[in-house]
Amino acid sequence: MTNKTSRVQPAGSLAQVARRRRVRMATLAAAFSLFALYLAWHEAYDPPTRHDDESPITQALADDPAQSTQPAATAAADPGLVKRGEYLARAGDCVACHTADKSRPFAGGLPINTPFGTIYTPNITPDPDTGIGQWTDSDFMRAMQQGIGKGGERLYPAFPYVEYTKVTGQDVLAIRAYLNTLAPIHYAPPRNQMSFPFNQRWLMVFWNMFNFTEGRFVPDPKQSAEWNRGAYLVEGLAHCEECHTPRNILQGLKTSDRFSGATQAGWHAFNITPDKNSGVGNWSDAELAGYLSTGAVPGRANAAGPMAQVVEDSTQYLTSEDVTSIIMYLRSVAPVIGGETHPRDQWGMPAHDVTALRGTEVTTVNGAQLFVANCASCHNWTGQGVGASAAGAYPALIHNTTAGASDPNNLAMVILHGVSRTTKQADVLMPAFGAELTDDQVAAITNYVTKQFGNPQAIVTVDTVAKLRAQQQ
Known about the structure:
The protein is mainly alpha-helical. The chain has 3 domains: 79-211; 225-332, Orthogonal Bundle (Cytochrome Bc1 Complex, Chain D, domain 2); 353-470, Cytochrome Bc1 Complex, Chain D, domain 2 (Orthogonal Bundle). The protein has 18 helices and 9 strands. The chain has helices at 11-45, 79-91, 94-97, 137-146, 161-164, 169-179, 204-211, 225-237, 241-244, 285-294, 305-313, 320-332, 353-357, 367-374, 376-379, 409-417, 439-453, 462-470, and strands at 111-114, 117-120, 193-194, 262-264, 267-269, 296-297, 301-302, 419-422, 427-430. A 3-stranded antiparallel beta sheet has the order 1-2-3, with no helix packed on it. The chain has a two-stranded antiparallel sheet with strand order 4-5. Strands 6-7 form a two-stranded antiparallel ribbon. A hairpin with a 2-residue loop joins strand 4 (262-264) and strand 5. Helix 10 crosses helix 12 (320-332), helix 16 (409-417) crosses helix 17 (439-453) and helix 17 packs across helix 18. The longest helix has 35 residues, at 11-45. Mean pLDDT is 86; it is low at 1-14 and 31-70. Keywords: Cell membrane, Electron transport, Heme, Iron, Membrane, Metal-binding, Repeat, Signal, Transmembrane, Transmembrane helix, Transport. Its cofactor is heme c. Heme c 1 binds at residues 94, 97-98. GO terms for molecular function: electron transfer activity; heme binding; iron ion binding; oxidoreductase activity, acting on CH-OH group of donors.
């Protein structure tokens, strides 16, 4: 007889195998359930092949969502409601994101670049075929407050419904009433260019779990009416965090560093917390109000890039009461120390390079020479500007937040793309030099300006300038 030794599996190992099997089965069941939910959702809503996407609209107080199931009428609207809606739409700067071509205001088509692809903003004119003319008030309310489009599709957060959810129903409907009075423009923006899996809108359900909390603004009874108004505007309609708050790995707002500054399309939106070095804690209320109303504060800052557009299209139209409320609220947020040891607007001294350059043959890329040749006619070769504090003055580069920033990219972007800012006080224009100067020349001027008039530790490389030049504006 032959003895055979049988191998007995230990009881603990059998239990582990069974546990792993149950985990696998549970995972498969969960994946199948999610897929089934997606199919059911798709069948229920049957969204159209191409979607009207995302982009801003604006503001609010207590709400009762409209239950209308018919498209809103474009005529016979209450003039007072329309006027209020126009003001709120300006406060939310809707026109900026929904206008790619100024001859087609609110018709969309503006490309918004994200790490996941390019989103084109939708047409929000009352055109029935390519705009929102067939949307009901309920459709519009749901998009603003829940981030869900007319066909049930999840909107991408390039449309800041994360903030607009705080806007009251009354204000949402006022904005809709105003949009209904716009001239309908028949224009279909390009389709989004999102790579898989980010083109699967249903995945926004999971993004929302981590980055979105629906709900209207609730006033703080411990604060004044002015503070609450400022909080309502900043956190909701004006969606200031979209540019001034950094983002997490999922591109949601990093709430632990609110208002501490972030970069958008190559432009750095500065820290606007009350920190005295990194933020605006050393600005007076009058200076902050002047900046929001005109875009210029002599000896401090001059709005350029996206902020210039915000001033031009939005904040210059705010009432003095709303501007004061915004400032009051921003004064109360937690200061964030950004690492600066010196305020951005406290750097620099006049230059004397012109005398040193006389009779000197320059054979290399020389920042001082390039500055004198391209910039001095407006900013003076000393860097002290021309026109003092007049509304249309050419600003000084000394005591200038752009030149004094620890990140010199905004200065390079201004040289590349210029400045265009039209307000009630002045029409400000600085030409773009991107087509005239090479990357190494732009870098040389930038580094000369920061060294002489701004933060000498801020240095930009030629490679960085090339990357900034490539940023779509």
